[in-house]
Amino acid sequence: MEATTSAAEKGQLSIHTDNIFPIIKKFLYSDHEIFLRELVSNAVDATQKLKKLAGFGEFNGELGELKVTVKLDEEAKTITISDRGIGMTADEIKKYINQIAFSGAAEFVEKYKEKEDTRGNIIGNFGLGFYSSFMVAREVEIITKSFQEGAEAVRWTCDGSTEFSIEPAQKEDRGTDIILHIAEDSEEFLMKYRLNEILEKYGKFLPVEIEFDEKIINNPNPIWTKQPSELKDEDYIAFYKELHPMSEDPLFWIHLNVDYPFNLTGVLYFPKLKNDFSIKKEKIQLYSRQVFITDEVKDVVPDFLQLLHGVIDSPDIPLNVSRSYLQSDSNVKKINGYITRKVADKLSEIFRNDREGFEKKFDDIGLFVKYGMISDDKFGEKAKEFCLVKNLAGKHFTFEEYTEKVKENQTDKGGTVVWLYASDVQKQDTYIQSAQKRGYDVLIFDSVIDPHFINGIEYKIEKTSIKRVDADTLDKLIEKEIKLESVLSKDDEERAKKLFEETLGGAPKLTITVEAMPTDEMPVVITIPEFIRRMNDMAATSGQKSMFGDMPTMLNLAINANHAVTQKVLNATDPSEASALIRHAYNLALLSQGMLSGSDLTAFVQQAVSRL
Q1: What is this structure's pTM?
Q2: What are the Histidine kinase/HSP90-like ATPase domain coordinates in residue numbering (predicted)?
Q3: Which residues constitute the domain of residue 269?
């Protein structure tokens, strides 16, 4: 039999000290707006319970319209959250409200766990959510009537102290009204736009309709709650627009749906990343049973996957008592690994089934794939099958395909296959042309992540070395058994080197060598030592200042022993003529590396014109 309340009853709230947290007033939640999420979630919870009981045959009445209503009365300074769920008897109020931290949801799940897995539909978890109302209210009223036949309505009031009052009330329909009398320091929540903002944020996809300001503010059946077989491409795109109204259409998506060894649903979208590594990451929203929790998902989703957009929903992700942040445990690690595997499998599937379409998308998703390869070893192993490189002709290759393409001509004397690449096609054009004259193929690595990517994958590909086309002379980039012969004698080579050293003594530190190169290559080739160039590139993409400043502390300068200019320098009878030739060749080499600018560039152009 239920207890009836014929007269007002006074009492003290009973606190379970074994699991109490600093919950009352301003200590339970750091963000006061959470009160509305908690109370609306509780109302949804009560509604879901009634649906379950009807399904079990324990409620035979009319369900009628089941929705949660939020009403604002600015004049009375109240916010009311109403539902037509199971309601409470006087005894249940004493049990669930007066005994803080007793979880009604936990008891309900335990009671009915043999009939059906109710966990996915019941939101409440700690029995503390109701008390978040005291962060913003000076007084809270509960007017409630149980769904049970013959139940009487009850009114409970409390001013935030441990004292409460409970008495009979008038209420026609089953369900619960929570009335918050807003405190002076929380009157920001008496503004319509503010409540709408909070409901949009936390209740956008709650599983029961939420009405505020005479309109339904949520979508109770988002696509992640449905089976992929029920959905078409336009459904996924429409939902993406619902999440990100101003964004371009996504490239493709992954529908997550697993119930063992953990429960996880969701949809992850691949946006067009282009070459923007500074793209905002907080675009994956985490939900627990359709209640928004956070968009900081770094523990659940690997860092590189945070470039994706979408929604993840799992009741098995452990949350702290205020449901405001995650707590790491084995489930989080399993979910993290599962999502990584699903993404890799999806990319692999698209690559196998539609190679042409995948190649067209790769300029947009290459940044993501490369980031994943260097930051996650498990993803990297799978991605070796579908990560693509592109050459200057615009053709795409897997790692294995590209090695097969160039190995005949670009294998050095030690048996290592050398991949040549350009990071700036215009600036490195002279070096590219020299490489192409020898039949070498040149890749394009010009995205912001490529300096890190090259470092990360080089050691993962057997017997392969990746070198920028301007990192050294071609004969040193790909050393062969047979070398060109120098037309100069050893004495002439030493004399040429000395003349260059004397003339360029005031230049940045140079390591000068004389090398035999084809006659149609440049008279002087300037290169930056590979390790310095890579350090500079990675520093630049990380937004950090290079450890070497604006100009490298060391440059390699190779004099082309077989070039006509070198012969002219050696044959010059006037030292000033030799010096002018050397400086012109040096400036031409600097220009080809993009190192000539300002007054030096102007002077060089003027000199070049005067020579015409």
Answers
A1: 0.75
A2: 31-172
A3: 223-351
